[in-house]
Automatic annotation (TrEMBL):
Cited InterPro entries: ZapG-like
Main location per the UniProt record: membrane
Any matching Pfam family: ZapG-like
Topology of the protein relative to the lipid bilayer: Single-pass membrane protein
Cellular location(s): Cell inner membrane
Family: Belongs to the ZapG family.
This protein's UniProt keywords: Cell cycle, Cell division, Cell inner membrane, Cell membrane, Cell shape, Membrane, Transmembrane, Transmembrane helix
Membrane spanning stretches: 6-27
Record carries keyword Cell division: yes
Superkingdom: Bacteria
Name recorded for this polypeptide: Z-ring associated protein G
Length: 135
């Protein structure tokens, strides 16, 4: 009997220690903190995925709008080019006597300095002298 009680005690002790370790890990503050951090990490990952999808959607929509705008400008240019001859002829342009606004002689010229500018005065102003030195 005595040996059976010892065996039951050892089995109960091993079972109690195992159950205690499991419960301590489940209900410990470190475990709760770990679970909280893991949930926050998953939320942050989900927010990042959502933000990336929003950015991709924004840029694809912007590219579509710019493409439509380029097509509209191309159509406008073609329209202006096709109808410009119908609106005014070369003879009408010549009769207006419009001179070009920029001539070859009106080109801006670049003036290079002949000498480097002086960053100093030719005489000392005496501004930084002590009162004893000014006399």
């Amino acid at each position: 009997m005595n040996s059976e009680i010892v065996i039951y005690l050892v089995i109960g002790l091993a079972f109690g220690i195992t159950l205690g370790i499991i419960l301590a890990n489940v209900f410990s503050p470190k475990s709760r903190k770990f679970n909280l951090l893991q949930r926050e990490l998953e939320e942050a990952k989900q927010q990042l995925i959502t933000q990336k999808q929003t950015i991709v959607k924004h840029f694809s929509h912007s590219a579509e709008i710019l493409d439509n705008m380029a097509k509209d400008f191309r159509r406008l240019y073609q329209h202006m080019a096709e109808n410009s001859n119908n609106l005014i002829s070369q003879e009408d342009i010549n009769s207006l006597n419009i001179k070009p606004t920029i001539n070859e002689t009106d080109k801006p010229t670049i003036n290079f300095m002949k000498a480097q500018p002086k960053d100093y005065a030719s005489d000392h102003s005496g501004l930084l002298k002590n009162p004893e030195q000014k006399q």
